[in-house]
Write a structure and sequence with these properties.
Blueprint lengths: L1 E6 L8 H15 L3 E6 L18 E5 L5 E5 L9 H19 L7 E5 L4 H13 L2 E6 L5 H5 L7 H16 L2 E4 L2 H8 L8 E3 L17 H5 L7 E6 L10 H8 L6 E6 L5 H10 L5 E4 L7 H7 L2 E5 L11 H8 L4 E4 L5 H9 L2 E4 L4 H13 L3 H16 L2 H16 L13
Helix pairs in contact: 1-15, 2-3, 8-13, 11-14
Length: about 425
């Protein structure tokens, strides 16, 4: 079976969606399938090509783990304005389409491509190649753009929503991240029988509970006695991370508490400027860390932080939450009480939920946690246990393999999963 994954993010980019595609490709290749990943050049989230890379219109690489990576050209530059984002989406959709046309016979296309244009290019490619089309939906578009403030409710929004609904209805199969997303897709009139919920995951062997006093902490000169509240991941439009500056200001009397922000994204510069203007010594910013440092970075935290804008977070669990849970760290989340994030923390008994965009409430919980550190031990154990139950790599990959194998053999008895224990 030849499976083609089309994704606009892929390592060395740090976006979890790309890392998961890489792990899927690795595990599918190990199971004996032919696998090709069609992607772009590393530039997420800034839009600038990573240092040390040189873009080309097309280049195929053979990964030593047994699969191929086909990198295709696209536009570069800041993606803060809608017109720039749409141009990037269009250029990658076109180049990935023509790149994948060179791949010979394809059985299944898993399309996690750019919104709007990328999904249509994937569907067209499947039609030409006679392949099954798996539409992978991590966010509903254009609803996600509206939530981020990049689009209003006008005619363009309604037209884009109508075309994406048409595509959902004509996909052979849809994979998505949560029950709330599934219900939203079903509400568009999509057959529930072709929708499968497979949540984000992490490799629990790569991120696991570790000693908070470790080489990474010492490298970055964080004293052992300092209580670290960590925000790690993409700092995007819907993240609501702007409130962290006010949280740090409210905690500025506590020299033993550090708000550590690790990651990149379009909102990061805003946070850094605001923190500098407020002269906040208790707030630090670092870029995404190398994969080899990820476990120690997570272990340095005493608690993990999640923030989402009030109108966001209704559909899925932010990927940064999984890192905290895998590391066995309690979570303080500023989200709606009925959101998937809140449900995860309540079910796992591994965190505290405060209202969205309420820096006072978050600061109070952080202050209490720093003063009662022993209470965090049990919540940390619960976090790791809940992660292993719900978000471990092996279980999720097995679900993916079952879906794609059944899709490839649609109309014939599905092959036995090679991942069954």
């Amino acid at each position: 079976m030849h499976v083609v994954f089309i994704t606009y993010v892929y390592p060395p980019e740090h976006a979890p969606g790309g890392v998961m595609i890489e792990e899927l490709a690795e595990d599918f290749a190990r199971a004996g399938h032919r696998v090709t990943v069609v992607t772009g050049w590393p530039s997420h989230p800034t839009g600038r090509l990573f240092e040390g890379w040189r873009s080309q219109f097309r280049r195929k690489q053979c990964d030593e783990r047994g699969f191929e990576v086909l990198r295709c050209g696209h536009s570069f530059g800041p993606r803060t304005r809608m017109v720039h984002r749409l141009w990037y989406y269009l250029t990658f959709a076109v180049s990935s389409f023509f790149g994948a046309m060179t791949l010979g016979k394809i059985d299944v296309i898993v399309c996690a491509s750019t919104p709007i244009f990328g999904s249509w290019a994937g569907r067209l490619l499947a039609g030409i190649k006679g392949a099954r089309f798996n539409y992978d939906i991590a966010d509903l578009h254009p609803e996600a753009m509206r939530t981020a403030g990049l689009m209003g409710d006008g005619p363009l929004y309604r037209a884009l929503r109508a075309q994406d609904t048409w595509l959902c209805r004509r996909a052979d199969f849809i994979t998505t991240l949560s029950d709330t997303l599934r219900k939203s897709i079903e509400a568009r009139g999509v057959d529930p029988g072709k929708i499968r919920v497979i949540p984000f995951w992490l490799d629990g062997q790569k991120v696991h509970p570790g000693d908070r006093d470790n080489p990474w902490r010492r490298q970055h000169r964080v004293p052992t006695e300092t209580f670290v509240a960590l925000f790690a991941g993409t700092i995007g439009y819907i993240s609501g991370a702007e409130m962290l500056v006010e949280v740090a200001r409210l905690l500025s009397d506590r020299k033993d508490i550090l708000l550590l922000v690790v990651g990149e994204g379009p909102v990061k510069d805003t946070l850094q400027v605001a923190a500098a203007e407020a002269k906040l010594a208790n707030m630090r910013f670092l870029p995404f860390q190398p994969a080899a440092m990820l476990n120690d970075m997570q272990a340095t935290a005493d608690v993990g932080l999640v923030t989402l804008r009030p109108e966001a977070g209704e559909h899925s669990v932010p990927s940064k939450l999984l890192g905290y849970l895998a590391a066995g760290r309690p979570v303080i989340a500023s989200v709606h009480g009925g959101s998937p994030t809140a449900q995860t923390l309540h079910q796992g008994r591994c965190g505290v939920v405060v209202p969205p965009n309420d820096p006072t409430a978050m600061a109070e919980v952080i202050r209490h946690a720093a003063d009662h550190r022993r209470e965090l031990t049990k919540m940390g154990r619960n976090a790791r246990e809940h992660f292993l139950r719900c978000y471990e790599r092996q279980s999720s990959v097995r679900q993916w393999e079952e879906c794609i194998t059944a899709l490839a053999h649609q109309g014939r008895p599905a092959a036995q999963s090679r991942y069954r224990q």
